[in-house]
Amino acid sequence: MTHNEAKKRAKALVSQMTVEEKASQLIYNSPAIERLGIHEYNWWNEGSHGVARAGTATVFPHAIALAATFDPEGVRKVADIISTEARVKYNSHVKYNDYDIYKGLTFWTPNINIFRDPRWGRGQETFGEDPFLTSTLGVQYVKGLQGDGEFLKTSSCSKHFAAHSGPEAQRHCFNAEVDMHDLWETYLPAFEKTVEAGVSGVMGAYNRTNGEPCCAHSYLMTDVLRGKWGFDGYFTSDCWALSDFYKETGHKIVETREEAAAMALKATCDLNCGSVYEKIMDAYESDLITEDDITAAAERLFTIRFLLGEFEENRPFSDLPHELLDCEEHRKHNLKMAQESMVLLKNEKGFLPLSADVKKIAVIGPNAMSIIALEGNYHGVASEYVTVADGIRREYPNSSIKVEMGCKICKEKKNDYSGFGNQISDGIATAADADVTVLCLGLDKSVEGEETGIDDDYTCQGDKKTLYLPQTQIKLAEAVCDVCENVIVVMLCGSAIDMGEKLRNHAKAIIYGWYPGAVGGLAVAQLISGKFSPSGRLPVTIYYGDADIPDFTDYSMKNRTYRYYTGEPLYPFGYGLSYTSFEYSSFTIDSKDEERVKVSFELENTGKMSGMEKAQIYASFTDSRTRTPRFQLCGIKAVELDAGEKKTVTVDIDRYWLSAVLDSGERVSPDGEIKLFVGGSQPDERSEALTGKKCIAIKL
Predict the structure, then answer these.
(1) What is the pTM of this model?
(2) Which CA distances in Å does 434 have to 253, 394, 431, 480?
(3) Is 223 one of the annotated active-site residues of the chain?
(4) Rounded distance, CA 555 to CA 210, Å?
(5) Catalytic residue chosen out of the listed positions 238, 326, 390, 463
(6) Is the pLDDT reported for residue 152 higher than 70?
(7) Going by C-beta distance under 8 Å and a sequence separation of 6 or more, which residues neighbour residue 235?
(8) Going from the N-terminus, what domains does the chain have, and what CATH number goes with each?
(9) What does the pLDDT look like over 540-556, one tens digit per residue?
C-alpha cells in the first residue's frame, strides 16, 4: 500500500467520525469507535534494543553498544528481528483481545539525539556523538523496523526533535540555545536523513530550543520538518511534555491546558502522550482551534494505522509463527552483535586471549553478576541472561572460579545490618588468591538513566556529576591492583568513564562492554578466551576524568566530541584494538559527481586469526570560510577477513558529509581542499599513538 493510498483510506474513514470522535483519537491511548469497527489502540511502544516492557523478547545490546559495532548491516538486522518479534507478539495480543500499552506496532525509537556530553544519563539510548554514525545507523534501524514490503512491518519514530541531550533535572523547563551552524551541522542531520529514509513518526523533545517548546516549534516543525523536508508522517509529543507548556515548574508559556492543547495541535503535533489533549474539545469550543486542525491530525494518525495493515481483512504478517519469538536465529545474532560491540581498549603485551590453562580466576565487582547491567534501560525481558561471571564459568570450565561483588555500584555503607553494604575485604581476599582477576566495574540504569529521581554525590536525576568511576569502585579496584598482578577490567556502562590512573596503568587488559544485552556476559568471556577477535570501536570520546569540557548546559559544539575537542582524549572516538592486524593500501577515488564520491582501497588481514575490521573514512577541510570539524566521519564498512585474506573494499560517500555549514545553517562546498583518510581509527595523533598505525590520505 502506498502512502497516498493509505492517506485516501484514512481520509474516508475519518470523514465518518464526529468531531468528538476525531478528537478522542489524538491521545496515545486512543479509544475504540465501535460503530466504525475501530479497536482501541495504544500508540506507546518501545524498541530501542528489543521489544520492551511486554513479556519475553530478545534483549539486544543497548543502542550505544550497537553504535560501537560500526556495522550498519548488523544493526539493520537487529531492527528487522525486533519488528518480527513485535509482529509475533502483536498477533497474540489481537488474538486475545489485548490492546494495552506496549502492545501496538508504533515504536518510539530510534533515539537519534547526539551524545554531545558524557554526563548525560540517556546517552546510552543513542548511537553516540557523531552525526554521520548516528544518521547511518538511525536510517538502517528505521528501515529494519519498517521493512520494505507493501505494508509497514512496524512504525518507527525518530526522537527527540531537536537539540535534546540533557540535563535531565531541567528538561521540563530547559531552553537549549543553539546557533544555526551547530543546529544544522550536528543536531539535525540524523533527523533529516531518517525523514529521507521514510520514517513514519517524529517525537518532539521536552525542552525548548532557542525559546520555543519543541512540541510546538514553528521553525523546527513547520518550516523544517513539514516544510523543507516534506515530512508527512505523524508527530507525537514526548510523554507529558505538553503539560510543561503551562506548569509553573515547566516552560510556563501559556496559562491553561486548553491553550497548551491548541498551541501544540496548531503546530501539527498530532498525538499527545499525556493528558493535555483531553482538553481538545474545550479548545475547539473556545475557538482556539478548528475542526480542520483536528481532522488533519486524525487523518495523519489513521494513515499510519492503515499502512500497518490494521484494517485489512487478511492482516499482513499474521502468519508469522510464535516460535520465531526468542528463536535460535535471533539469539545467534544477539550474541554476534554483543561480540561486535566489545571494544578492547588495552591489551598489554598481548595478555589476551587468556589461556585455558589458568588455574584460578576471580570475577569481582558490582557488575560481575548483574543482570540490569546487561539490560540498560528501555529493555524487554529475556528468557535467559548470561552475566560476566556466568560467561567466565562457561569459557573456563577447568578453572577454579570465585565470584565476589566487592562493593556496590555507587554508595558504600559500612556496618549495614543487611550484610550487603561493605564487601571490599572479601573482594580483596578473593583477588589475592587468584591468578587472574576479572574486575567488573561500571554503572547501571539505577545510576545513569532518565530522570531517576536521585540527586546525590555522583548523579543528578540520572546525569553523572563526574567523568570518573564512583569512588567506592575506585577504592575496590585500587585495592585489587595491590594484591593481584594480572587484572582484566570489564566496564559495563552507557557512557564515557575514566577508571582512574592507577587502574588504567595496572590493568593488563581493558574491555568496554557497554550494556551488552542478555548474552553480553558470554560475549565478554569469549573475547577474553579468544573465541573471536574484537572489532568494536568507540562511538564516543572517552575523556580524562579531570578534562576541561564545557558546562553541561552549553549546547555549543565548541570543544565537544572528537570533531571539535582541542585537548588530548584518554581514548578517541573510533578507537578499538584487535587480536589480528589489518593493512590498508591503494586508496583511490573511483568516481565522483555532485552527489556522491566512490572510493576504494585494499584491505588485508596480516595477522594470524580471522577477524572483522571496522574501516573508517574521515574528511578534513582546509581554508574554509566557516567552522568545520577537525575530522568528520563520512564512511564506514565492516569487513570480515580470514588470516592472510585480502579484499578490495568500495565505499560510497554522500557529499552531504563533505560539505561545510555556514553560520546561516546552509550547506555549501568547502572553499579549500578536502582530504580523505581511511584506516581502522580516526587520523588523530592519539589514535596513531595507541594503535601504532597511520591512516592513508588522499586529496579529493
Answers:
(1) 0.98
(2) 62, 18, 5, 11
(3) no
(4) 11
(5) 238
(6) yes
(7) 201, 202, 203, 204, 221, 225, 268, 269, 270, 271, 300
(8) 3-319 (3.20.20.300), 328-551 (3.40.50.1700), 582-699 (2.60.40.10)
(9) 999 999 999 999 999 99
